[in-house]
Amino acid sequence: MITAVVRYALPPKIDYAACREHFHKIAPNFREVTGLISKHFIWSESGWAGGVYQWERIEDATAFYTGPWLEGIIQRYGMKPQIDFYEVFAVTDNTRGKVELFEEAVAPNDLSR
């Protein structure tokens, strides 16, 4: 499993309410993204927003963060996003009362894309 943290600075015209409204509008569009397990839409008082994504494979993540998605981010926010990839070793999910441990799935060099 791969976690990607995607961040971008919000332009002054996009305040808390506008960001929240936009995220609520687009959230359903992520239901059919290949390899996406979940996405958390995030906002900070520091003026940054983005997403924390859980992916099945690094290939799915890197394929998604190109083309139309990237063009849309640049157009809306005026910058390329900062994207950091992490391999997930374990997950504690208290809502399901479950702990998952993952075998090595990604070579460390593959996350430096």
Count of extended strands: 6
| CATH architectural category | 2-Layer Sandwich
Tell me the fraction of residues in β-strands, as a range: 25-35%
Count the helices. How many? 3
**Structural class category:** alpha+beta
Give your account of this protein's structure:
The chain has 113 residues and is an alpha+beta fold. It has a single domain, classed as Alpha-Beta Plaits. Helices cover 26% and strands 34% of the residues. It has three helices and six strands. The strands form two sheets. A four-stranded antiparallel β-sheet has the order 2-3-1-4. β2 and β3 form a beta hairpin.
Write the layout of secondary structure elements.
Elements: E1 2-9, H1 16-26, E2 36-43, E3 48-55, H2 58-64, H3 67-77, E4 82-87, E5 90-93, E6 98-101
Which keywords apply here?
single chain; 113 residues; alpha+beta; Alpha-Beta Plaits; two-stranded antiparallel sheet; 3 helices; 34% strand
Brief rundown of the structure:
By secondary structure, the chain is of the alpha+beta class. The protein has helices at 16-26, 58-64, 67-77, and strands at 2-9, 36-43, 48-55, 82-87, 90-93, 98-101.
